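Minimal example, chain plus adenosine monophosphate.
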Amino acid sequence: MIEKMELLDVDKLIEEFESMTKDAGNVQRETLKKILEENGCAEYLQNLGLNGRTDPESFKACVPLVTHNDLQPYIQRIVDGSSSPILTGKPITTISLSSGTTQGKPKFVPFNDELMETTLQIYRTSYAFRTREFPIENGKALQLIYSSKQSKTKGGLIAGTATTNVFRNSQFKNTMKAMQSQCCSPDEVIFGPDFHQSLYCHLLCGLIFHEEIQFISSTFSHSIVHAFRTFEQVWEELCADIREGVLTSRITFPSVRSAMAKLLKPNPELADLIHKKCLGLNNWYGLIPELFPNVKYIYGIMTGSMEPYLKKLRHYARDLPLISADYGSSEGWIGANVNPNVPPELATYVVLPDIGYFEFIPLKENVEEAKPVGLTEVKVGEEYEVIITSFAGLYRYRLGDVVKVTGFHNLSPELKFICRRNLMLTINIDKNTEKDLQLAVEAASKLNTEEKLEVLDFSSHVDLSTNPGHYVIFWEISGEVREEVLEECCNCLDRSFVDAGYVSSRKINAIGPLELRVVQRGTFQKILNHYVGLGAALSQFKTPRCVGSTNNEVLQILCNNVVKSYFSTAF
Ligand code: AMP
């Protein structure tokens, strides 16, 4: 029987979003009320003396701002199987492992049906706006998505990355169908036990359905760049599989093999076509539209730590629109990209006022004393740290992200993601954020372009083992670069940190010369493998841009793979 597909009503979704954002203040009050009513019996809230009050004023007076560390003992009891209401009224049965790429190890956060529903809500909202600008036909999507291992905690709860919990939920598939965004790969590939094998099969499925693919997506855009970099290595093998209709022996998992066998038929014409197209490309420029003639856009989170991959993504995508996906975290979603026409560098996210209760700590003032303000009280042009109160047991939780308010959509703010707050290069009075590092790397890597070489990935570290301490920047680059160019890159990096504290410390040698360490090809792949080994999924992977001494294993991977190092002579 052919299933009748119910498509989403785009106009209705947009209308609902418009009316909700026009009433953002009231919707926030109502949302807080709902969260507190549903979870009022939870031990955590009971102990704070709210006594049934659900208004924002009482909430702020009784409930402290917290970090993940503060909630860790409560979450641990849930993980260990306590069934009493600890953080939520209804017991938590699933745990998300946040990517942990910033802290070094994954954190546990609660996941529940409400979080699932808000995830789908934000997917539907941005889809509605996206599809109005870039309509898609009823085809397929090459979704470069991967699941982590789902395990059981000691207490019997299901634990996996948040994206895994979402992909495994039956509602995910239904929503993708309703959004005409069905993944071209079978479930066995998405949930395959080895991401290298899944990646290969995703590419193969994409090629098999190449004319039907409407868009290419991933959670974070790093996965798209990673996939096409892999394509450059394996394209001949992919062609051979398509020609013969037989999957390479490198794919070893029986479930993946049998799922792929159902799709793979000998198709020498397609193999020839792909072969010809690949040989006709200059340095793989425009690879995506060549392979997938009906693709309308590329979709994935492209802001924040994903920005450095945009250049490569544009190279593969030629003139296809790049659309940044929404803003959220394992802890909860925050905002949707409702302006898909805007290039990713300028992408902003409108907060959905009914998916959580949001507060913002102004960063202009002295942090310790700064009082958080409500969603509708934020000011355009100012930067804030985001605080979430969610339907999944987090109350006034400091997410650690810095955002800038760029405007309002009706009464709900539009946020630009700036950086992680704790990712900071600092030795004494200097303060450089992830964003500052990103800009420095961007400036220095421009010196490389004449040589046609690219910085494939980068990270940093504060080395205090020298006296004075100094910044270390790790680069993985493609090919050989002349010594003089790298020396100049090193100086340029040093000069590009324009923070007054840094510059003055450098001038008086209170901070030593910046060091550029070039690492072997494949080093960042080793880091990725390391995180995947810890239970992270490729879907949520973010290269750690600053590696502290406590993240010893990653630091060791970087340090053990250094091939050359340069010290700045800029000061
Ligand atoms: P995870 O720890 O895997 O749940 O990742 C959540 C974090 O990813 C957020 O706290 C942000 O730092 C980052 N992130 C999520 N969405 C975006 C976005 N649209 N732009 C930039 N960074 C994002």
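The radius of gyration is 24 Å. The pocket of adenosine monophosphate is lined by residues 98-99, 162, 301, 303-304, 327-330, 399, 401, 417, 420, 540 (CB under 6 Å).
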